[in-house]
Design goal:
This protein is α/β, with parallel strands linked by helices. The chain has twelve helices and 16 strands.
Length: 395
């Protein structure tokens, strides 16, 4: 969800500085993926994610007032987001002299891109049952030097301590393939040949079902998978919030009921709850505001929680949201802690919790595995795999 924050810091700083909830009590869910069976398809896991993840990490020099008022989408930093169970991170690198910074539009956060990758590297080393999905977008508005983004990005991703972390995309990736790893999916085609993760194709920010269902993820060696996305980002106009909520629900209607019968029917889902519903007009430009992200979150998060309460559980895909991990932010009832927990818990309403299965196995010789639908099957044979791994490796 790419937006432009179209004004100079000096104009915005005069408006004043916002505060935010830094002292929220955080409920850890550091190893929830360890409860998933290895054979579960990643595309069928419900994963909570943070939009513009680095905006909870503080701001670059001179940008604090601007960032807090106009560019903040998170109250928790990336380490805290990890701590509460967030496993998808929206990172927006741009080019600075000697490093890549994480920005929201022109507003710099205090987090360098390599620092975020190192933090996730260390978190995965400490919690090897987990994995991470990165939604990557070059924040061109924030570039400070004239350099080649692809060259700089590839150099960082191929660094000796980082390169082993990255999984190559294939549509049939399983939880077992991903444990301790990162799936990096880029919105920018930064290389002639894809060697790391995958690249999105046909991304749209429109609330148009036909366009939302034309997405692809391209991986190394010509592998590809179908991707459905909802990324309608500007809800400030009359009726915008209703359009956003209906678009979220329509994709949930599909993802929670879709039956995966074979590898070609796998659908990767990216459903963005994030958007901005309030703007500030300056010299003819409409600028997104932190208050607008909070107001939108209060609406979309409540709608998703209601959906989960009133519909049969099923896969949600990657759900990218603002203000993860906090229920209140500057007077707005954003319910970000409730929603992260609800998305995690949703997995174990349609997928078996293997920690519970293990306790049953102590009293039984049954071995549990999972088919393509994520539905448990029970057999008495040892080491059963429902899916032919050779076929999975083809996708």
């Amino acid at each position: 969800m790419k937006k432009r924050i179209l004004c100079m810091f000096v104009l915005l700083c005069a408006v004043g500085q916002a505060t935010w909830a830094q002292d929220a009590e955080l409920t850890p869910d550091g190893d929830w993926m360890g409860r998933l069976a290895d054979d579960v398809l990643v595309a069928r896991v419900s994963i909570p994610g943070a939009h513009d993840s680095a905006t909870g990490c503080g701001w670059g020099e001179g940008a604090e007032e601007t960032g807090n008022s106009y560019a903040r989408t998170q109250d928790l930093n990336i380490a805290q987001q990890w701590h509460i169970g967030v496993r998808a991170f929206d990172l927006r690198p741009c080019l600075y002299d000697g490093y890549m910074n994480l920005n929201h539009g022109i507003v710099p956060t205090s987090m360098h891109f390599e620092e975020a990758l190192e933090l996730l590297r260390d978190s995965l080393a400490a919690h090897p049952t987990e994995f991470v999905v990165i939604h990557l977008l070059h924040e061109t508005d924030g570039d400070q030097v004239d350099d080649d983004y692809g060259t700089r990005l590839k150099a960082l991703l191929n660094r000796d301590d980082l390169k082993p972390l990255f999984v190559k995309f294939k549509t049939g990736l399983t939880v077992g393939d991903m444990r301790g790893k990162i799936l990096l999916l880029s919105r920018d085609n930064y290389a002639t040949t894809i060697t790391t993760g995958g690249v999105f194709k046909n991304w749209t920010g429109e609330a148009n079902w036909d366009k939302q269902t034309q997405g692809r993820i391209m991986g190394p060696g010509g592998t590809s998978g179908t991707c459905y996305m909802q990324d309608y980002s500007d809800t400030h106009n009359t009726g915008g919030l209703d359009i956003k909520v209906n678009a979220i629900k329509r994709l949930l209607d599909f993802s929670t009921t879709h039956t995966t019968t074979n590898l070609t029917s796998i659908r990767w889902i990216f459903n963005f709850a994030s958007a901005y519903s309030k703007v500030l007009s300056i010299f003819g430009y409409e600028i997104s505001t932190s208050e607008g992200y909070r107001d939108n979150a209060a609406h979309t998060h409540a709608a998703i929680l209601d959906y989960l309460d009133t519909h049969e559980a099923g896969p949600m895909g990657v759900v990218i949201m603002d203000y993860v991990g906090v229920d209140q932010s500057e007077g707005y009832n954003v319910k970000g802690a409730q929603l992260v927990k609800a998305i995690i818990d949703n997995n174990f309403k349609y997928l078996n919790d293997i920690t519970k299965i293990r306790s049953v196995k102590a009293k039984s010789t049954d071995v549990h595995a999972f088919n393509l639908n994520g539905i448990p099957t029970t057999k008495t044979s040892r080491g059963l795999r429902i899916i032919d791994q050779k076929k999975i490796n083809q996708y």
